[in-house]
Design goal:
CATH architecture of the largest domain: Alpha-Beta Complex
Order of helices and strands: HEHEEHHEHEHEHHHEEEEEHHHEEEEEH
Radius of gyration: 24 Å
Distance between the termini: 36 Å
Shape: globular
Structural class: alpha+beta
Largest sheet: 6 strands, mixed
Strand order of the largest sheet: 4-3-2-1-5-6
Keywords: Aminopeptidase, Hydrolase, Manganese, Metal-binding, Protease
Bound molecules: manganese (II) ion
Helix content: 25-40%
Enzyme class: hydrolase
Oligomer: single chain
Protein name: Xaa-Pro aminopeptidase
CATH topology of the largest domain: Creatine Amidinohydrolase
Cofactor: Mn(2+)
Number of helices: 13
InterPro entries: Aminopep_P_N (IPR007865), Creatin/AminoP/Spt16_N (IPR029149), Creatinase/aminopeptidase-like (IPR036005), Pept_M24 (IPR000994), X-Pro_dipept-like (IPR052433)
CATH superfamily of the largest domain: Creatinase/methionine aminopeptidase superfamily
């Protein structure tokens, strides 16, 4: 791992919170992700499943966490099963967690090698009545492959058909949406790395540069700051490419007079940041570009103030829609008749701003969180309005990541990343 070790207090607390929501005489199991194949013997880089990471800090393939708070044997109330390692295996397979290192990372004292799994599972399964399995219920999930977790669940249900089953996911959705101070600090580090990359790019962009050259500059800054890289597939969209919302080719040349929309940010220690900025290729916004830019910025600033405890996500979007409608009227993109005759299910503003304004962010970029429940302090959200005008060859989105406070305005984790049009022009021309 490139990141600095994380205090195991975080994972100990996360397990305590999870256990407090479990039914009596129940056990919960969490698996690592597979290492996904390419072909021949090539593989994709490993990405740990965020739930086992959240509950243990273990960032290694073929790991299993078992929680059984009512177990008669105190040794088996928390257990890790890991791939065996020793000095000899390490020569061939590289460094893997020893039992001691697994304890330091997770705070879990009982660590077995995987070959003991079936035997120990038989012992603990005969001592419990309910088993918590971990299904993916994220509102945007769309998974076609069978995960390691799915395979384990099938095996478990097949071998122990008399157990009742419960769901871990709703518990994790609630817990993971409210961040611990240690997590907020890790997210701040991800945002700070993103800031370095963005400032580097401000000094690099000029007419004729290619979108992928900008991508390379950012990756350089991420890697040298202990990030694995982009938290999500980067969007570097010049000119009309900005109007393709999920443009990820990043293979065009940036032209004098155009804008570039970046939706690019670093991960750190598996935590995401999520930034959008829109800058002029030649270092100076035209009057029209600046007018649209400042309209987006005003919507962002006003929307941010609505992210307070008690706000319901859907109501918030209705309010942001009103802010956006008034800006679009001001820009002459909508007229009063468009608004009077609008379809309430697809309001007029959606012609120019067709995506959501905010999502939870954390270990996943589109993080866990039950959207029908009211917002709470220490939830972290993005704020990302945009205006997209294909007829004018421009699209502008501005996005920061903010932490909801007990009272007052949210804390902006990206408060140091330049956003005022004048400051961006100044830095590009320095
Ligand atoms: Mn986002």
């Amino acid at each position: 791992m490139k990141y600095h070790p994380i205090d195991s207090k975080l994972f100990i607390k996360n397990r305590k919170n999870f256990i407090s929501q479990m039914k009596p005489s129940s056990l919960a199991v969490f698996n690592s992700n597979d290492i996904y194949p390419v072909s021949a013997d090539s593989t994709m880089p490993f990405e740990q499943h965020r739930d086992i990471f959240y509950l243990s800090g273990v960032d290694q393939e073929e790991s299993i966490l078992v929680l059984f708070p009512d177990c008669p044997n105190p040794k088996h109330r928390e257990m890790l099963f890991l791939k065996e390692t020793n000095a000899h295996i390490a020569v061939w397979e590289g460094e893997k967690l020893t039992k001691e290192a697994a304890f330091t990372t997770s705070g879990i004292k009982t660590v077995y090698w995987l070959q003991d799994l079936e035997k120990i599972m038989f012992e603990v399964m005969t001592q419990c009545d309910t088993v918590y399995i971990n299904t993916n219920e994220h509102y945007r999930a769309n998974v076609e492959t069978e995960t390691r977790e799915d395979r384990f669940t099938k095996w478990l249900k097949d071998k122990y058909p008399a157990h009742s089953v419960a769901k871990s996911n709703p518990i994790l959705q609630r817990l993971r949406s409210v961040k611990d101070p240690i997590e907020i600090e890790l997210m701040q580090q991800a945002c700070n790395i993103t800031e370095k990359a963005f400032r580097r790019v401000l000094g690099f962009v000029k007419p004729g540069v290619w979108e992928f050259e900008i991508e390379a500059e950012m990756m350089h800054e991420f890697l040298r700051n202990r990030s694995k890289g982009f938290a999500y597939t980067p969007i570097i969209a010049s000119g009309n490419n900005a109007n393709v919302l999920h443009y990820i080719e990043n293979n065009q040349q940036c032209k004098d007079g155009d804008l570039i929309l970046f939706d690019t940010a670093a991960e750190y220690a598996n935590y995401s940041s999520d930034l959008s900025r829109t800058i002029p290729v030649n270092g100076k916004y035209t009057e029209r570009q600046k007018a649209v830019y400042n309209a987006v910025l005003r919507v962002k600033n006003e929307a941010t103030k609505l992210l307070v405890p008690g706000t319901i996500w859907a109501d918030y979007h209705v309010e942001v829609g009103k802010l956006m409608t008034s800006e679009l009227l001001g820009l002459g993109l909508l007229d009063k008749a468009d608004v009077q005759n609008e379809n309430p299910d697809w309001p007029a503003y959606k012609k120019y701003f067709m995506h959501g304004t905010s999502h939870h962010i954390g270990l996943d970029t589109h993080d866990y969180g039950l959207l029908h429940e009211p917002m709470q302090a220490n939830m972290v959200f993005t704020v990302e309005p945009g205006i997209y005008i294909p007829d004018e060859g421009l699209g502008i989105r501005l996005e920061d990541d903010v932490v909801i406070q007990e009272s007052g305005e949210p804390f902006n984790l990206m408060g140091n990343i330049p956003i005022e049009a004048e400051e961006i022009e100044e830095l590009m021309n320095a």
